[in-house]
Amino acid sequence: MGDPRLSDAEVLAYRRDGFVVVKNLVPEPVTLDALVAIDGLLCARDPHLARSERSTVRQEIHGKICDLAARDRAALASVYDAIRKVAPFWAMVGGEELVSAVRQLLSSESPGVIFRGCGIRLDLPGEDKWRSAWHQEYHSQMSSVRGVTAWFGLVPVTTQMGPVELLPGSHERGVLPVRCPDPMNVGKNYTETFVLDDVDDLLTRYTRASTETEVGDVVFLDFLTVHQSGHNRDPLRSRVTCQARYFDMLEKEAVDHGWTGGWQEGGDFRKRHPEKVVAGSDSPARSPPESRREG
User: Fold this and answer.
1) What is the dihedral of CA 295, 64, 68, 73, to 10 degrees?
2) pLDDT per position as a tens digit, 24-53
3) How many other CB atoms are found less than 10 A from the CB of residue 8?
4) How confident is residue 203, by pLDDT bands cut at 50, 70 and 90?
5) pTM
């Protein structure tokens, strides 16, 4: 099935735990290309900032993000929404390193990219407002239950910076019931679209896992693995991470629904899975914040 990128042990760990951490998978030069592109957008929106040298951009990007946040939060929001459009990001998403690994994990020669579900996050020090609480990817993405997310940093992500937290083995529970306060993301805050119904029970059944990652390391997680964003408690560094989402295009559900996905593509979880919606869980969406924050 193509050029194998993952070992048998890594694939087995993914099947067992619902996630696997693959070391040094994404080439360092292309991650640096993405940071250089992001640096250019930050400087374009803030005349106080000057472009960094390629050799120093990975260290200097943190201060620039924080400086722009302090001076002009709306400008930073526009950068946040634009960075998913930089070409080096899509070079990674479509690169053979990630795609070959996804083929192995999905056991499929036909992986598709959920392009509206791919993006780059800038999580500021100490800011929890935009964190994603415990959730499954499937509720928002819905292209197929046979889906996998590739989560990786453009900077090293230390424990203090808040790596993604996961509940190993939770994918075996299938699609979990949810409350739906804003299932179509009318309020433009995707962190509040769905809420798992009984998180306390999940946290008693499963042990949390998280790991520091270096640039190039990738956390692959099943669409049904329960996980949440970490808390960035580093006083000086932003967590700059990529999320690329893939699915098996030949899986029956994907075919039956014409390869449409979640709310980003107009898909309504309530209509596709009414049996998984907690009764009386809807509430009016709130006014849009300064950024779309679509993941």
Assistant:
1) 20
2) 999 999 999 999 999 999 999 999 999 999
3) 9
4) very high
5) 0.93
pLDDT in tens, 176-190: 999 999 999 999 888
Q: Residue written as tokens 């989402």?
A: 245
| Nearest-angstrom CA–CA distance, 132 and 164 | 10
SS3 string of the chain?
Answer: CCCCCCCHHHHHHHHHHCEEEECCCCCHHHHHHHHHHHHHHHHHHCCCCCCCCCCCHHHHHHHHHHHHHHHCHHHHHHHHHHHHHCHHHHHHHCCHHHHHHHHHHHCCCCEEECHHHCEEEEECCCCCCCCCCCECCHHHHCCCCCEEEEEEECCCECCCCCCCEECCCHHHHCCCCEECCCCCCCCCCHHHCCEECCHHHHHHHCCCECCCECCCCEEEEECCCCEECCCCCCCCCCEEEEEEEEEECCCHHHHHCCCCCCHHHCCCHHHHCHHHECCCCCCCCCCCCCCCCCC
Domains in the chain with CATH codes: 8-276 (2.60.120.620)
Q: What's the confidence (pLDDT) of residue 281?
A: 65
Q: How much of the chain exceeds pLDDT 70, in percent?
A: 94
Encoding tokens for residue 292?
């779309």
**pLDDT for position 290:** 43
The values of phi and psi at residue 54, to 5°, are -60, -35
Two structure tokens written together for 166: 């996961």
